[in-house]
Amino acid sequence: MKFRNGKRITWQICFTILIILFSLWSLFPYLYAIIFSTSGPTLPTKLGLPEKFSIEAYKYVLFEDSILPYFKNTFIIALLTCLITIPVSTIAGYGFSRANIKGFNWLFYALLVFRMIPWVTPVLPTFLLMQKLHLIDTHFGISLAHSLWLIPFAIWLIKSYFDMVPKEFEESAYIDGASNITAFFKIVLPLAIIGVVVSTLLVFLFSYIEFIYALILSRGQATTFPIKIASYSTEGRMYWREMSAAALLSTIPMIALFTFLQKHIAGGLTFGALKE
Amino acid sequence: MALPGLLIVFSLFGYLIIDCFHMSFNQVKPMLHIYKYVGLKNYINAFKDEDFIQAIFRNVVYTVVVVIFSLLIGMIEALIVNKKFRGNAFIRIIFIAPMILIPAATGIIWIMLYNTDFGWINQFISFLGGTRFPFLGSKDLAFWSVIVTDIWGWAPFMFIILLAGLKSLPKEPFEAASIDGSSSVQTFRYITLPLLRPVVVIAVILKSVDTFRAFDYMWVMTQGGPGNASQILSTIIYRTGFRLYLYGYGSALSIIAMFISLIISVFMIIYYTRRGRTE
Asked: Would you call B112 and A244 a contact, using CB atoms and an 8 Å cutoff?
């Protein structure tokens, strides 16, 4: 593009301002939480930096009010959810990608419908079912509920990756005398492994941040981190600084994951979406 | 392994939804295992329930406003990052940042932002000379305040999808346009937008479906209050079932909510597939 010099400079200035504005919009709650959680005992009531700097709130959250067990619960539940969801979805996704049976496609669309049911609809029956199974307040119970919602999503995503692997690859393997199972594990799966990794991460993430089911299915022993954070806002006394410290700490694992795998996750999300 | 897995998923979903149906025709005290058949009474009550009807409308408004604004913000952000400049990768992470925060944590941080004493939003208003305003405690503004939070939290989702869409567009039309000397606005209006349409439609469908069942922000920030002023579908269902312990009535509400969202998503999918065919 050719601009006259003056026009070009104005354009660049406008563009920079635009970037700054949108970055500020994305970041100001983070900045606020950082400043707020590290301010001294007197909270600033006017715009500007606080007078004192202290990390008391972080010490309190980590060691006195101990959020670590909740972290542990969340991690166990998210891992269990992945362990249940991913094997089933990988094989089912492969099945949907390759099967040529009539009616099978309808099952696939039925899975899409599961994604559209409001999560809150089966909350009451799930609660009663888990009560019957004595799974209330257990890690397994919560991850079972999460898996139920995440399996359709994961199948959907993984299938689109298997679709990318040409069928000829397996066919030539069959000719060489490989069985179905060997062809899958030795040839197809390695080619679609990124899809499986991306799905695992997203399933982990969604289980990590899930709120309703973790809320109704836990009583304290298996309470997850999002519930703990939310409980800060309903308890009688407001621990403002501690709340923001806990909220910020909760983001660290996710920031690490997303920064490392940003590109793949973005690709995976869109991929699943566009392939619908 | 897959087939039994699928079978379990389908039968569990089937069981849960049928159980929900079953409960919706009864007055239920599940702890005592008492089911009293009341026919359509729960449904009739639901349609007479002013709060519930309002929650439906509020839910629609919520979805429409959140989707439109996150589409706008996501689109501008995607167009910015799609240009070449130094620090591009860094800016991309900044734009994704809101999505990484646990929704409950986002809700809490925004509660504090709206706080009359410590919140930046009120401090900014008073800095400009206005009077401080209790956003989340106000009947008129609590609902809209949560909408702003939702837009902040999920605009990155639109951004990611639209950016990937922009990156996958063919190069030739843009080269032709630049040779013909069309302005950037013209290029966007007549080339980028039509080419990007399928991606935009998919992004809007996915986002609408997800927003329609929004719960976290509203529950953490207002619990549907003050009064019932910011009640949306999932919060009113949750409150009916788990605060008022009206399981039967709550099930009827959630069956209605399920049908509304199914009808809307089926229409959107039909619209999408038909578009795909005619173009």
From this structure: yes
